[in-house]
C-alpha cells in the first residue's frame, strides 16, 4: 500500500479535487441563478424596462 503514495502526491491530488468541486459548484450556482425561476429575484438579469429590483418573478399559477 505504501508504494501507491510514491505514484502521486496526495496533497496535490486533494487540492486539485477541492478546486474542481468548487468550480463545479460555482457553475451550478450561476446556472440555477440564471434560470427564469430565480433570475428576477436579484434583478441582475431582467430585460424588462419596468422591472424594479426586489420584484418577485412572475410564475404561472399552480396546478
Describe the structure in brief.
The protein has 63 residues and is an all-alpha fold.
Low-confidence sequence ranges: none
Q: Report the sheet-strand fraction.
A: under 5%
- Largest β-sheet summary: none
Structural class: mainly alpha
Q: What form results from the Cα inertia axes?
A: rod-shaped
- Average pLDDT works out at 76
- How far from one another are the termini? 58 Å
H-E order = HHH
| Helix residue percentage | 55-70%
The number of helical segments is 3
Radius of gyration: 21 Å
Total number of beta strands:
0
What are the SSEs and their pairings?
Blueprint (H helix, E strand, L loop, with lengths): L3 H4 L2 H24 L2 H7 L21
Structure, explained:
- By secondary structure, this protein is mainly α.
- It has a domain at 13-39.
- It is built from 3 helices and no strands.
- It is rod-shaped.
Summary keywords:
63 residues; mainly alpha; 3 helices
Amino acid at each position: 500500500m505504501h508504494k501507491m503514495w510514491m505514484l502521486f502526491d496526495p496533497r496535490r491530488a486533494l487540492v486539485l479535487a477541492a478546486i474542481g468541486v468548487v468550480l463545479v459548484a460555482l457553475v451550478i450556482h450561476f446556472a440555477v441563478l440564471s434560470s427564469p425561476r430565480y433570475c428576477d429575484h436579484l434583478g441582475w438579469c431582467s430585460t424588462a424596462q419596468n422591472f424594479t429590483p426586489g420584484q418577485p418573478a412572475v410564475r404561472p399559477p399552480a396546478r
